[in-house]
Amino acid sequence: MTKQGYFTNEEIVLLDWIQGKITRPNEAFSIEKAHLFALKNGLSPYLFHRIKDNKEIIPDELYPILKKDYFNALFRNTRIQNVWKEIQELLNAHHLSFVPLKGIFLAQYIYPDFNTRPMSDLDILIMYGQAQQAFDLLVSKGAQHSGEKQAAHDKKTGHHLPGIIFKGVLIELHTSLFPLDVDYQIPNDLIEKSLIKYDNVFTLPPMLNFCYLCMHAYSTMRRGGIRLSWFLDLVLLSQSEYFKADKLELTKIIQQLNIQVPVLDVMKKAEFLFDYRFEFVPKSLQGSLSTTESSVFVRLIQESGQQNTDYSYAIAFERLKNTKGLGNKLRFIKSVLLRGDNTRVTSLIKRLWTVTTRSFRMFLSKSR
To answer: Residue by residue, what is the 3-state secondary structure of 118-151?
Structure first.
């Protein structure tokens, strides 16, 4: 399906460059709009990598801006990588089992250049119930609490401990891949049985990792956040040597876990964005976005930041639905309203108003 009529001129040109197409911008091309789109979606460093050898097609003003974004990512990623190496040594020395998630794995093993996949933090899944032990270890080595307030319901069903900052890098130690009260899951017991060793680090099997990244993107979109780099992750992952060695079948995994909806939804969106086809997908599972789906998807891209509050309570309502017992449901609602342990009456009224209005906008946006 063509992207014409959905995306702006600047967005189409940049998506073409991501795919390696030599598209020359026209006179109406806005440097400011193009850069904002690339930067917001985490694409700037990879874009620079793709077009740096074709400077003749890039507006003179845009090249140095993308180059600066690349070097900013280089400095940030280098710091995160150094912290990651130290954390690995600590966890290994204390015989704690861990799996690097998302950016740190993708940047190191999937992207053509470590610095072309921007990172802002470290996500680490700690296995076998050892997350608190890992948390206490890092704190004993100088890590500081990030100041994040954990909602009461997350203490029971959340999927990571409160964030900590270690040598200037935010660390999230995950106890599971997703909150335990959401519909779509990859259970820890399956992960523990499936882990493989790749270049001296334990990781998810490639197809399971692919499904996880789809599910993460799907969940975050339901909260109103989106970055196009998440979809690029999937394309590059599917082309990697790591992925090609996998013997697992997509159909078997998604049926076993009942995760067809999120995985296929995100795959279709990635194919739409990058004019791509995942060759490993059987014909029975292939499809494309409808005109309406394409319009809604592009509107989310263009209107959303990392967290568009028009959508942000979809996951909360799902978690509330899956909470067992009336008393537990009431405690869940209370913990949402009193997030951050702020019990002042004025704060409670303000929070209640915010939740109500955002929920109304969420349902209104879904009906459009």
So the answer is: CCCEEEEEECCCCHHHHHHHHHHCCCEECCCCCC
SS3 assignment, position 160? strand
Backbone dihedral angles phi then psi of residue 135, each to the nearest 5 degrees:
-60, -50
Read off the pLDDT of residues 241-291 as tens digits, 9 standing for 90 and up.
999 888 788 999 999 999 999 999 999 999 999 999 999 999 999 999 999
Identity (one letter) of the amino acid at 77?
A: N
Which of 38, 16, 54, 58 is closest to 276 using CA atoms? Answer: 16
Query: What is the predicted pLDDT for the residue at 316?
Result: 64
Q: Which two tokens stand for residue 76?
A: 């940030």
- How far CA 29 is from CA of 33, 61, 233, in Å, comes to 8, 12, 27
Question: Tokens representing 200?
Answer: 């001296």
* DSSP letter (8 states) at residue 41: T
Q: Closest Cα partner for 189 from 176, 208, 178, 172?
A: 176
